[in-house]
Every structure is written in structure tokens, then in C-alpha cells.
Amino acid sequence: MDYSSNSRWALPVILVCFFIVLLSNNVVFASHKVFIHLQSQNAVNVQTVHRTGYHFQPEKHWINDPNAPMYFNGVYHLFYQYNPNGSVWGNIVWAHSVSKDLINWINLEPAIYPSKPFDQFGTWSGSATILPGNKPVILYTGIVDANQTQVQNYAIPANVSDPYLREWIKPDNNPLIVADDSINKTKFRDPTTAWMGKDGHWRIVMGSLRKHSRGLAIMYRSKDFMKWVKAKHPLHSTNGTGNWECPDFFPVALKGTNGIDQYGEEYKYVLKNSMDLTRFEYYTLGKYDTKKDRYVPDVGSIDSWKGLRFDYGNFYASKTFYDTSKNRRVIWGWSNESDIFPEDDNAKGWAGIQLIPRKVWLDPSGKQLIQWPVEELETLRTQKVQLSNKKLNNGEKVEVTGITPAQADVEVTFSFASLDKAESFDSSWTDMYAQDVCGLKGADVQGGLGPFGLATLATENLEENTPVFFRVFKAQQNYKVLLCSDAKRSTLKFNETMYKVSFAGFVDVDLADKKLSLRSLIDNSVIESFGAGGKTCITSRVYPTLAINEKAHLFAFNNGTEPITIETLDAWSMGKAKIQY
């Protein structure tokens, strides 16, 4: 993935730079010079405030995309884009860590770094494939010149018997794939995990762009994994989305929660693309015609920015892999920082985290995916507290005590006696994003059925807090459930230096039992929330000034006129993941 200019850094930086341009082009030029300077400024003092306790992050400096996750010979491997020399994007190498449980990690030396003509200007994202004979291979994007011409390379372990696969070789017959004249050579990156068709040929997909607005999943085929030929047509393309990067294409079983790694027509398929224009991802569900090598989204699966997302918050460049040890599909996602200026990341000495890996499977409706934190995370649960049958009237809240609120795992089920007080869903909201509705109807705006939920990383009097909450609306023919993670009051820091946004998504859930469930993983500067058993997921990055460490509080609240009952609430203090640097 490309972060080589300020305009590609992240949505908050895009917005800030836009306004700076309006003020002065000279300021933008000065800012870019500062950015370049910071790329190789080694962190001397690493600030521990806001560092996570059980999420993956290196000891210091910048990280972004998770790359080539795989399970091989009893060991989980995670590669990721990393700047070994500074806390902003630049000098990117493939860092490498290994684990036995996806939670505790050992950091190794970088596996891939710029060193040869086919990647001397950059080693960008890619994927891993296990070839017949149990031979792992990595495909990655190399940058060959200052114009950011992109090619596809491969790397193999120097010693496949090494349990940690510490050293990787980039053979001299690279690059394997060079874009032809029909392809935008600067928008041609991030190869997927390969799959083999019934014809015995391997297939991979790269993200690309045509004519400024059409996103492409360009397919290549190979008999031997060395000589690749571009298919006559892309696997799929969509107009109006902008460039596609970090594509992912994989099958899901029609029933059950197990993962699969077979590419037959009897399965449902997922095509995910990361939109570098919006800094969000979306996915569709559909069918894969194995004879024509065409992917066709299901009717009703929205094929645009307003489509389904793995996560409606700060979550990007995701990558899945099939975990043979537990027969599951696992997804990794990266979460960048929400402080706006690169100088802030440089000052604290680190930037970016990998989110908790999630198991992913098809919802029984067949209309969306379900995600849930991998079960191994529960080994970090320590002190537990419980609440049950606690009624909350309008304006009431109850504090969850006895745990560490800044580093916790909370599961709660809310119930209500009636849907009658659900607010009317304004027809003008139909074309709005859910987060726009959340911006209008925040946690402090009294409603009928909701808002109710959790106030996380909160001060005692809620001067600072990040509420994660539901609000139920009555539409013409059904009910609409909104899940919000609202960072507007997450910190007392100036708005000019923080990106404090209301992230939100609608939850497709049957309210016949008049219950809604929520799980939130709280970890100092990140809140990952899973609504209705993982139907809708939202990640927020926040930086409290008061609600930190032992001064943080956790509340359950109701600001709707319909009384809410906490049927069950289970909360755990979370221990620290063991990460060996």
C-alpha cells in the first residue's frame, strides 16, 4: 500500500492538508519537508501513555498493512509494513513476527527489504501461499524507480526447516509480473494469496485503477507459479470507486462457522477492496464462475463505497488467511493513529497497531459476514465482574467497577420491553452514511429506544468518554438499529490536532426477542466493538488526557425514554500480551 505522500497518509491528514492548501501552498511545502525529515528520525524516548497492552505493535516506530499472515508447521507468521528508522511512513521493510497462539509474539529480523533493482525503491504489501510439497512463498509488490513503477516479486525461505523461517531469499528471476501497457503501472499492487483452479493453473489478483475512477481486480494465471499471464478480463471491476488496493478474495461455507480453502462453485465468495481515496474498505458477497474466471456480486450486495464493511471505523488494509490448525478463516486489520500531524507520532515514538485477529464466517442469512475475536484472546482475561437484571431508566448510568477499565473485555446483553418508543427514521437519511446519522444523533441526544450502551475510557463525570451505543429507529417497513462509536468527547485535546469522528454502522438484526448484545475490547487507545454477535464491528482510536490507566472509568448508560435492562454484563481485566522484541 502507498503512503508515499502526505495526500495518501490517512483521511484526517487529507482533510488537514486540504485546508492548509487553502491557506498557503508554502505551508504545505514546509509540511512535506518536515514529513520527509521525520522518516529517518529514530525514536529515542518511546511514550508509554496510550500504548496498547494486548494488541500487537512493535517496540517503536511506524507500522501499517498486515502482510502474508499464515500458519505453517505449527507456527503463526505475521509480516507487516514497518519503518525501522522512524515513526512516520517511509523506509518500508517487511517486519516479521511469529506466534503459537496469535496473541503472544516473538519479533524477528525483517524478512524482506529493498535491496535489488526490482524493489530498490520499496517493498510493499503482498500475501503468502503454501505450494505443493509444503513450500511457502511470498508474493509482494516491488517499487523499481522514483516514478513508483510497481512490479510483482516473490521470496522464498532460505531454510524451510527453520521453524521460524527467519531468512527469506529474493531470487534473481524477479520480477515475476510486469504490467503491460494497458495497466496503470503506478496503481498495480498488493497480490493476493494464490489459488489453484480445476485446470491446474494458479490464479492471483492485484488491485488497480482504470481511467481515474474504475477499480480493478486484475487476474493473472500460471502453470508453474513462475510464468504468469494476464487474463483477458479482470476478476471484477467497479466504476466510481477509485483505486483498489490490498484486495482479498476467498470462499466461505454456506453453513457453519468453519473456514474453507477450496475454490469451487458450490461456495459463496468474498471480494474485499481497500479504497485509498476514502481510507475505508468494503466487501461484496457473490458467485465465482470458475470457467469464465468472473466474480459476480449477489443481487442486493452493494458494490460501492456504501457496501458492507468488515469494520466501520479505523480499520484498513485487512488480510485473511486460512488457519489449518483450527479450520477457520482469520482476518487481520491495521489501525492507524488518529492524531493528525506526523510530528505527534514522532514525539511519542510509535504509530499504528494491528487489531485483534478475528474469526470470520458467513451469517446464516447469507447476506453478510460475521466476525469475532479469536478465542485465544480469552487467555488474557483475569479479574472478572458481573452485573445482571439491572434496570436503567432515562438518564441513568451504572459504573462497572472491580476491573481495569483502560484495559478490559466487556460483553453485555441489553433488553427492552417494547419497541413502541423507537424514533422515526427520517427518509432523508436513506442516502447518508451511518456515521452521519450518528453525528446527528449522538449519545447525549435523548431518544426513545436508545441511545444505550457503554461509556468507555471515561472520566468520573464524563468530561472525557467514548460511548459505544445502540439507537433503534422505526422505518416504513422495519426497524433500523444503529451502532455508534463516538469519539467526539474522547479527549480534551484540541480538535485541530485530533481526528474525533463518530463512526457507525447499521446492524441487520431481528428484534423479535427485544435484545441487543455488544462486546467491546478496550485497550488504552483503541476500542474494538462487536454488535449483535459480530454482525457490525467498529474500531475507534482515542487519546484521553484524564481517563488514562487507573483514572479511567467504565459505565453502562441509557439516554432513551424506554427503560433498558442489563440482562447480563461480564467484564474482565485484560493482561498484557507477551511480545519479545
TrEMBL record:
CDD domains for the chain: GH32_Fruct1-like (cd18624)
EC number: 3.2.1.26
Leading EC class: hydrolase
InterPro entries: ConA-like_dom_sf, Fructan_Metab_Enzymes, Glyco_hydro_32, Glyco_hydro_32_AS, Glyco_hydro_32_C, Glyco_hydro_32_N, Glyco_hydro_beta-prop_sf
A biological process from GO: carbohydrate metabolic process
UniProt-listed SMART domains: Glyco_32
Signal peptide boundaries: none
Matching Gene3D superfamilies: Exo-inulinase, domain 1, Glycosyl hydrolase domain, family 43
Pfam family of the protein (one): Glyco_hydro_32N
Domain (Glycosyl hydrolase family 32 N-terminal): residue spans on this chain: 55-373
UniProt keyword annotations, A-Z: Glycosidase, Hydrolase
Subunit structure as annotated in this protein's UniProt entry: May be present in two forms, a 70 kDa monomer and a heterodimer of the 30 kDa and 38 kDa subunits. The ratio of the levels of the two forms within cells appears to be regulated developmentally.
Protein name, entry field: Apoplastic invertase
Organism for this UniProt entry: Solanum tuberosum
Classification of source organism: Eukaryota, Viridiplantae, Streptophyta, Embryophyta, Tracheophyta
Gene behind this protein: InvGF
